[in-house]
Design brief:
GO biological process, one term: maturation of SSU-rRNA from tricistronic rRNA transcript (SSU-rRNA, 5.8S rRNA, LSU-rRNA)
CATH class of the domain at 131-324: Alpha Beta
Strand content: 5-15%
Strand order of the largest sheet: 1-9-2-8-7-3-6-4-5
Number of strands: 27
CATH topology of the domain at 131-324: Rossmann fold
CATH architecture of the domain at 131-324: 3-Layer(aba) Sandwich
GO cellular component, one term: nucleolus
Protein name: RNA helicase
Structural class: alpha/beta
CATH superfamily of the domain at 131-324: P-loop containing nucleotide triphosphate hydrolases
Helix content: 25-40%
Organism: Theileria equi strain WA
Radius of gyration: 35 Å
Largest sheet: 9 strands, mixed
Number of helices: 37
Oligomer: single chain
InterPro entries: DEAD/DEAH_box_helicase_dom, DNA/RNA_helicase_DEAH_CS, Helicase_ATP-bd, Helicase_C-like, P-loop_NTPase
């Protein structure tokens, strides 16, 4: 290299350093302008004198900006009033046209988004913050990028913001937007979170930082904590926003919507992004054309995300801006286990014990998969005795200077440490029974909230801020006691807030949590994270119709998120209870996209409810498999939630063919063809009235319809309570029974039942009738008491929702504290019939009735007879012809679960595209039902998926059916419809049988039928519609059928004109 080129390179490097110095000074001046008081200038000067490095990488820079060219339960509260604007509302046609996936533009790869043209007048707002709290938030890297973030959102309608954990994205960006005037007019900033605990915690955090409990609020399920008049930043779960879309598809009360933690790719989150990407386009178009409603800004945020999924997605039309915020504030040291343990709960216990015994102060966060594991580990940790005085003396020298231990000290490597028999730590590994819990504490109705609780949270957090300013790590080392706190999604708000408390001087807090603490939530004082590497994931098997929670490995991005929980105020340590080789080889890079694996029925019903009828053309961020969409569409059509497609019968499309053909040979579905065949190629989901009702019940559509059907039959309080519990149990994904090693004397056999529904009825009645010793009852029958608690909670929630949503149905008040009584025989029948109706697509026929020698059953999910399904051994002695089931389990021998025998006579009466009418019967003779104004015939009924004959059932024909017109003409002419002309029936030149025989087109009956068929006169309603226009309608044709020599024409005419009372 020449001296000249070396000098040139050195000069360029020096200029880059100067540029970076000026850039950072600019950032600091912005912070001073927007956040710091004059009294704090000394801190800025000290910060500005620190050396800056040139390369913006993860290890040396706080800030990095990238452009895109470089690279998820229902609210029933009354919401905010939408902003008023002058333009007319969006028409249905305009909305549906704009919501369609825009495929006109060819994919040309990522490119720089075009900046928007017309801009609202964003006026900044001054915020008075507490000085100490403001000092703490200014240490967050996001504050260094405030102007860049604000400008990106101001000049781009869709922005993707990524950043390392702990940079303050979730808490600071909503504040930036509020301070910079994005709440235009009556609009507010909406932020969605996946988990309820994150909504509440972040809302409280921002309330504290803004020094106001009125500007920020939250809404989760049917619990809300905000003032609708003063709230400017609203946190909510994604389900709340989806529910609001039912009534306000344009999100007119929001100026900005932030989708946080998008990396988890929950189904609700993906659907929201797909809808909002179109709504952003609509709002922008309308605003540019003069509408006063400001454009909608969509901000998508996450820490660990696969940016390509967003930047390369066609749904954004490549108009998406990308920013990235880096953090080098504190390190988190990762410690892998030498080998992966078989029982990670026991290993977690040992690791927590070692941390508490050996390491300096700092709280511990342990990640487990579910509540059973949380309670089991709590039970094990309870057996760690409080350290004795001797132990305190032995370790006093070690811990006296623990706060000065370097984070790379060997003391943090716990692999070599062993817990000796001399330590005051004892375990009883045989005592692993499931804990008794107080249902009133853990599962009480969330509607009962304390009005003063919100202010108490803010006061607690403010006190915590002051203490955290005074000391880096709070609490005790191994000389203190261990305080155990549990955190999971189904806890009450008060119970969850215990995880945000800081320890006293004589204790160390260990938080046992599911993955609710993995993202968004910043728990205070967490220095140590124990990561089991496991999570519960819901996996759906569309073929077997079952969704199960399975324990599986987390992804590498989730592991990174968990490690990011440690060391928010200092260097932290993450202890992974798995080896590095397991991590590298078995852990996926990212969590699977939920919408690719989940049951799509609820999602497609939601899309249909807001007017998106074609899910195949919807703007999915990641499209689900077409087969899964097909299965969900077929299920919704079977349940009656969406309209079944109609195909016209073109075999009888002329009047001549309708008159001369044998009417008994025409399909009973005329003018349409059989419904079942059209289900296979059904591509549109037009919602029905029933479907709209089901979309408001927070359950999967199948179980929501069970609730609907049970209520349509009875509304007594005891019946409602029992029905809701049974349906909730059937929708429950976990196991209701557990395996326990208890002696025969303690265990009891369940009574003998003929089906699972009778067993569930007995179980819930007996359980609620036990005022005491419910744990003993559960243990005796190997029942999972926690599962029953969750089932009761869901039943209560659904009941409360129905009371609010459907107040016009006048449900009897249910006292859930009272025991459930054995139902009356008719109530038991109502419940079973409702279940059978909603499981009609899961009907199984005994193989012997289908000509099979197998002892099993055949069902619609195995239509080719390739394999059979079987009853449980308990019910195998019953030789039921027909049963319904909830789902299938097993590999080699597939068995049915939640089995109920079905009555063939009842199945044949179910209105479903799977139950078909064929072959109109000559006897009993078709007849006109005057009260119902329909023609009724008897047809053979078949279960279409298995082509299985059920029985002969009476059905009503459409009034356009040729046989319906003939039967009505027959009854009309013989005076059975209108009595005023009955006296002339004896003068007819034709018999009643002549109306059902093949007719020549030139006959007198054909002349009458030709006129009636041309106007579809198949009932009184259709006839009287024409009669009102002309009182002599059909008179001449009727008169031709009489024997002319015996008819008094004038008298007949007078009777004819007065036969209908108008």
């Amino acid at each position: 290299m020449s001296k000249k080129s070396a000098a040139s390179k050195k000069k360029r490097k020096f200029q880059e350093i100067l540029f970076k110095e000026e850039e950072i000074k600019s950032y600091l001046s912005k912070i001073n302008k927007h956040a710091l008081s004059a009294n704090d200038k000394s801190m800025i000067e000290e910060f500005s004198t620190k050396p800056k490095k040139v390369k913006p990488n993860h290890a040396s820079s706080n800030i990095q900006v990238e452009s895109d060219s470089d690279s998820e339960p229902i609210c029933y509260e009354k919401d905010l009033e939408p902003i008023k604007h002058t333009e007319k509302p969006l028409s249905t046609a305009e909305l549906l046209a704009l919501l369609k996936n825009d495929k006109k533009e060819e994919d040309s790869g990522p490119r720089e988004p075009e900046q928007v043209k017309r801009q609202p007048d964003y006026k900044g707002i001054t915020v008075e913050r507490d000085f100490n709290i403001n000092l703490k938030r200014l240490k967050l890297p996001s504050c260094m990028m405030e102007q860049e973030i604000v400008d990106a959102i101001k000049y781009n309608d869709i922005v993707l913001i990524t950043g390392d954990t702990g940079t303050g994205k979730s808490t600071q960006i909503p504040q930036f937007l509020y301070e910079n005037g994005f709440c235009i007019g009556n609009t507010i900033i909406g932020v969605t979170q996946i988990r309820r605990v994150a909504c509440i915690a972040i809302a409280n955090q921002i309330s504290l930082e803004l020094n106001s409990n009125a500007l920020v609020g939250y809404q989760v399920r049917y619990n809300k904590g905000y003032n609708s008049k003063s709230c400017k930043i609203k946190f909510m779960t994604d389900g709340i926003l989806m529910n609001e879309l039912h009534t306000d598809i344009l999100c007119s009360k929001y100026s900005v919507i932030i989708i946080d933690e998008a990396h988890e790719r929950r189904a609700n989150c993906d659907i929201l992004i797909g809808i909002l990407s179109r709504v952003v386009k609509i709002r922008r178009s309308r605003y540019d054309n003069g509408d006063s409603l400001p454009p909608l800004k969509l901000v998508i945020m996450s820490a660990t995300i696969r940016k390509e999924d967003f930047l390369e997605s066609k749904i954004f039309d490549h108009k998406i801006k990308s920013l990235h915020v880096l953090s080098n504030a504190y390190n988190c040291t990762i410690h892998y286990s030498k080998k992966t343990p078989k029982d990670y709960v026991i290993e977690a216990r040992d690791k927590v014990a070692k941390i508490h015994k050996i390491l300096p102060p700092g709280s511990i966060l342990v990640f487990l998969t579910g509540k059973d594991e949380l309670h089991r580990l709590r039970h094990l940790l309870f057996q760690i005795n409080n350290p004795s005085h001797t132990m305190h003396q032995n370790h006093s020298a070690t811990h006296s200077s623990s706060s000065h231990v370097d984070d790379d000290d060997k003391i943090f490597e716990l692999e070599a440490e062993e817990i000796s028999d001399e330590d005051d730590i004892s375990y009883n590994e045989s005592d692993n029974d499931i804990f008794e819990f107080n249902s009133d504490e853990e599962y009480h109705n969330e509607l009962d909230t304390d009005d003063g609780f919100y202010q108490m949270e803010l006061d607690t957090m403010s006190s915590n801020y002051t203490k955290l300013q005074e000391s880096k790590w709070l609490g005790s080392d191994g000389s203190g006691k261990l305080k155990i706190v549990i955190l999971h999604a189904s806890q009450t708000d008060k119970d969850q807030m215990e995880a945000f408390a800081i320890p006293n001087d004589n204790e160390r807090i260990v938080i046992l949590s599911t993955n609710v603490a993995e993202t968004s939530v910043t728990l205070p004082n967490i220095r140590y994270v124990v990561d089991t590497g496991k999570e519960k994931r819901k996996v759906h098997n569309p073929t077997r119709g079952v969704s199960n929670f399975v324990i599986c490995n987390i992804s590498k991005s989730s592991a990174q998120q968990r490690a990011g929980r440690a060391g928010r105020v200092g260097n932290g340590h993450c202890y992974r209870l798995y080896s590095n080789s397991i991590y590298e080889t078995l852990f996926d890079d990212y969590s699977p996209v939920e919408i690719v694996e989940c049951n799509l029925e609820s999602n497609l019903l939601f899309l249909s409810s807001i007017g998106i009828a074609n899910p195949y053309d919807f703007s999915f961020l990641t499209p689900p498999p077409v087969e899964n969409v097909d299965i969900a569409m077929k299920t919704l059509a079977t349940l009656g939630a969406i309209e079944v497609p109609k195909t016209r019968d073109m075999n009888y499309n002329t009047i001549h063919s309708k008159i001369t053909s044998d009417p008994l040979k025409i399909s009973p579905y005329y003018p349409d063809l059989c419904d079942y065949g059209s289900l296979k190629e059904y591509k549109r989901a037009k919602i029905t009235k029933l479907g709209r009702c089901l979309s408001l019940i927070p359950m999967e559509p199948r179980y929501a319809k069970m609730i609907y059907c049970t209520l349509s039959k009875g509304k007594r309080a005891n019946y409602i309570a029992l029905s809701f519990c049974i349906v909730s149990a059937m929708s429950f994904s976990g196991g209701l029974f557990v395996e326990r090693n208890i002696s025969r004397e303690e265990s009891k056999e369940l009574p003998s039942f003929s089906n699972d529904i009778d067993m569930l009825i007995w179980l819930f009645c007996k359980y609620t009738q036990r005022t005491t010793n419910k744990v003993e009852f559960c243990n005796n029958y190997n029942i999972n008491q926690k599962a029953i608690g969750e089932i009761f909670l869901q039943a209560i929630q659904v009941y409360n929702i129905l009371k609010i949503r459907f107040s016009d149905i006048h449900l009897e008040h249910v006292n859930w504290d009272e025991p459930i009584k054995i139902p009356l025989p008719e109530e038991r029948r109502w419940l079973k019939e409702s279940i059978v109706e909603c499981l009609i697509d899961k009907l199984a026929i005994k193989g012997a009735y289908l000509g099979s020698k197998s002892g099993g059953y055949k069902c619609s999910e195995m239509p080719n007879g390739a394999e059979c399904v079987y009853l449980n051994n308990t019910y195998s002695k019953y030789k039921y012809e027909c049963v319904v089931y909830n789902y299938l389990v097993g590999d080699e021998k597939i068995r049915m679960r939640d089995v109920l025998q079905a009555n063939i006579a009842h199945v044949s009466t179910i209105k479903s595209p799977l139950v078909l009418s064929r072959e109109i019967q000559e006897t009993p003779v078709p007849s006109y039902n005057k009260e119902k104004d329909v023609v009724e015939v008897y047809t053979k009924k078949y279960y279409a998926p298995l082509n299985y004959y059920l029985n002969v059932t009476r059905v009503a024909l459409d009034h356009k059916h040729p046989l319906s017109i003939r039967i009505f003409a027959q009854h009309f002419c013989f005076g059975l419809v209108y009595g005023r002309i009955a006296e002339y029936s004896g003068l007819l030149a034709v018999s009643m049988d002549d109306f059902l025989k093949p007719i020549k087109f030139s006959s007198k009956i054909a002349m009458l039928l030709e006129e009636m068929i041309s106007k579809n006169i198949g009932n009184k309603k259709a006839f009287e519609k024409e009669y009102r226009k002309n009182k002599l309608f059909l008179f001449d044709k009727y008169k031709n059928l009489l024997k002319e020599s015996t008819v008094d024409t004038e008298r007949l005419k007078a009777s004819y004109e007065s036969m209908v009372e108008l």
